[in-house]
Amino acid sequence: MKALVFQGPGEVAWQDAPDPDVQDATDAIVRVDAVTLCGTDLHIVKGHVPDVEPGRILGHEAVGTVVETGADVRTVRPGDRVLISCVSSCGRCRFCRERRYGQCRGGGGWVLGHLIDGTQAEYVRVPFADLSVHPLSNAVDSFDAVLLADIFPTAYEVGVLNGRVRPGDTVVVVGAGPIGLAAIRTARLYSPGRIIAVDLATSRLEAASRMGADAVVGADDGPEELVAELTDGLGADVVMEAVGAPETFEMCTRMVRPGGRVANIGVHGRPVALHLEDLWIKDVTITTGLVDTCSTPMLLSMMTAGRLPTADLVTHRFALGQMEEAYDVFGRAAETGSIKVALGGPRHTEVTAAPLRVGASA
Fold this sequence. Notes:
Layout: E1 2-8, E2 11-16, E3 28-36, H1 39-45, E4 62-69, E5 81-84, H2 94-97, E6 123-126, H3 129-132, E7 133-135, H4 142-145, H5 151-161, E8 170-174, H6 178-187, E9 194-199, H7 202-211, E10 215-218, H8 223-230, E11 236-241, H9 246-255, E12 256-264, H10 276-279, E13 285-287, H11 296-304, E14 314-318, H12 323-331, H13 333-336, E15 340-343
Parallel strand pairs: 8-9, 8-11, 9-10, 11-12, 12-13, 14-15
Antiparallel strand pairs: 1-2, 3-4, 3-6, 3-15, 4-5, 5-7
Helix pairs in contact: 5-6
């Protein structure tokens, strides 16, 4: 098959790679029909995630069709169309029993495109398939559903839920990339008083307005002053960091009110200063987290019912074989205006299952 392979910092290539095989009885092999790129993938390519070794196939978000299953898989079978979660769950360890799948200690967590080969390929092996893929209705478009593999659950769980957004709150989202825009859309489910979006790029601020932000401001145009003005000097109830930079994190801590919440969503590749000399007296809560994807079934139900639109986040589409071009466009978002990039091959009308092997079951 073809796959996007990490060669080392600054280098990736769409090249030949071995077809995945069922390795464990809980595995499923999925043909990738739609896949997207994540800001975390860019962090990996820049060398900010040292656990990712050269030779790794990247990607952790996809929609596809099951072509083979291990003997213990019960909830899907060849021919089923599924959403692949960015987080895998063994279902047995302490954290999985607490629905904290991102911290799985049984071989799951964020492994796809990180510790094992990922989804930016023609086929992918998904471990713990019963808990790590979600069957899709034919009513849901693949390019819509793929956004529920990561960005919407991440924004909702790590941003909105961790930030405890409540009706009437002033919410600030710093970073209007895909995660920040998804945070704006899902924060609106809780009827905040106002949502303020901060970003450097005019195109992303315009997108934030379309997603439901009540006010937008450039990162260099005095966002802290605007927040102070709109809150009578008090500060925001909830501030979400959706960039992953020291400067933006520190900005967030300056914009939060006493007793408020800072929800860090961004992936940080450098140390960040925590100014406790200013914060200790303010009763501020700061949360971090990796998505657990426990909200994915609920979000998928909302999408199926037409209550969670996502399609407008996808600004660029490519064929699967245009992976390197897609990375270039996504990596130059300030120039290209890209928000979310999606790739998919031609539509298939039938699925051919791989030959059955000992220990595998259809």
